[in-house]
Amino acid sequence: MSGKRALVCGAGGFIGSHLVKRLRRDGYWVRGVDLKYPEFSPSAADDFVLADLCRRESWERILDRGFDEAYQLAADMGGAGYIFTGNNDSHVMHDSAMINLHMADFGVRKNVGKVFYSSSACMYPAYNQEDPRNPKCGESTAYPAAPDSEYGWEKLFSERLYAAFSRNQGLDVRVARFHNIFGPEGTWRGGREKAPAALCRKIAEQSDGGEIEIWGDGQQTRSFLYIDECVEAVRRLMESSFAGPVNVGSEEMVTINQMAAMIMETAGKKLAIKHVPGPTGVRGRNSDNGLIRAQLGWEPAMRLQQGLTTTYAWIEAQAQSAAGPVRANSGKFLEAVP
Fold first, then answer.
1. Domain made up of 5-333: CATH architecture
2. Read out DSSP for 265-318?
3. Nearest to 134 by CA among 257, 336, 299, 288
């Protein structure tokens, strides 16, 4: 047992809930905080606070004891259908920025040992991601800044916020830029799901010989990282002396059409693809893992097909089940903070 205490902000979300499980396995006492409990399984946190992290009084309540580490993953976010419509920009900018402003401030005031911040590959300049075959997403390419969304601009702002608090106030920070994390127990319907989950759902809901829709021409490229690899990278970064920012993603780049074909192969279905108008983001994005290899001596090993197989099986079961989300939770829970 490590005997350490960890705070996980965003513990009701996909990555946060998986991170809580890992920290518990590593021997941490864990407090999870979010507006909601995890949707698909009980939280593994030792206690869980329902709180609005945009509000200053919430932080006074959750930081009522010393924490060796804090993991800040809370944000207003979603897939392309949420981020790129422009309809949610004010919430994305305001809510996420407020959470990070509070985390930086209270991290110093409450003497939190280390703070991890989950940035995003969406902060990279759009002008470096116009060629789907050759995107440039090395950490050194971040400037001149030109993210393709307000979500990306907020992520970049918060990176600089934490860097300033580290430089001026001694906050010990680690920053990772996530590239399309996916896996079981992630959002798979409702408008905030990302491409792997959306395609798994569409394919699971269709009979062999049917048709699915894909936004755009399907030639846009991305790389996708399985959740267990993401959590491993986060833990290695926090155990290291390297502050980042560093890419956490896969270098196995595919088109969206290719990913759909991979999922169809897993499902044992042959489906037609109908390309329809819709938000697609940049034309190409792929993780550049040169820095994480150099600094941590590590890179992800799981192939995309393996992760998609596991994820598809989980989403297929969800789609076929008439049962609603799991609401029961284990562990000790503090009263909600408004």
1. 3-Layer(aba) Sandwich (3.40)
2. HHHT---EEEEE------SB-----HHHHHHHS------HHHHHHHHHHHHHHH
3. 288
**167 vs 173, 176, 244, 274, 305, CA distance in Å?**
10, 18, 14, 51, 42
Residue 139 and residue 126: Cα distance in Å, rounded? 14
For residue 149, how far is the Cα from the chain centroid?
Answer: 16
Q: Are 97 and 158 in contact (CB under 8 A)?
A: yes
- Element holding 108 (H helix, E strand): helix 89-109
* Identified catalytic residue from 151, 162, 226, 312: 151
What angle (nearest 5°) sits at the alpha carbon of residue 185, between those of residues 202 and 76? Answer: 90
Residue 254: count of CB within 10 angstroms of its CB:
18
Tally of CB atoms within 10 A around 304: 20
First-last CA distance in the chain:
33
> Got the DSSP string for 154-166?
HHHHHHHHHHHHH
Q: What is the pLDDT of residues 10-56, one digit of tens each?
A: 999 999 999 999 999 999 999 999 999 999 999 999 999 999 999 99
Q: Where are the domains of the chain?
A: 5-333
Catalytic status, residue 151:
yes
Question: Global pTM?
Answer: 0.91
Task: Round to whole Å and give the CA distance between 120 and 238.
Answer: 17
